[in-house]
Amino acid sequence: MNIDELKNAWSEDVSDETPEISTEHTNKINLPLEKIRKNMRMEFWSTVGILIFGFLVVWVPVPEAPFKFKFYLTVLLFSMVIVVSFFFSKFFKLYRDISNPMQKTYESLQDLMFQFKLNEQYYLSFMLSFVPFLVCELIIVIEFIPHRVPLSDFQIATTIISTLAIGLFGLFLLGKYWYKGFYGKYVNQIENLLNDLKK
Prior knowledge:
This protein has helices at residues 3-17, 23-59, 67-99, 106-128, 130-144, 153-198. The chain contains six helices and no strands. The protein is an all-alpha fold and 199 residues long.
């Protein structure tokens, strides 16, 4: 067998491995993909809105608050912006791939399913990354908000540790629930369609 015959055989194998998906199945897959894209856009803009609102709350309504209090909260919010930017850069890659009109082969959709599974882990990490910010915010509040009776060291330690434990558990559950409601059901629809295509 010469080189030309090998190239032809290889080309035929490649084309056999990546069959085109019918128009009917493409339309069925496009609907959940569009829902996922819509939810990603909504989540991005709502996160931007929440961060802007956070900066406004720190600087506008409390002009008499000590500068250190405002400065620490501002640094905390900027740190959150950095973390959010990192995770949204990952989500944006998925958003771009979903928007790609070339997603017409079975293999490309399998790759997309892998990205959905990977982004589910990113999503949970994204939610859990807010626990340290929650604890830092609590420390700032304890330090700067006056109390009628000063808190003991034991009360401070108990408050911070319980906030850390409840925050981790609560944000993990919220992340699972939020992902399932906003993305999981649509990912399952696509997975079921792909399983139908296998048969």
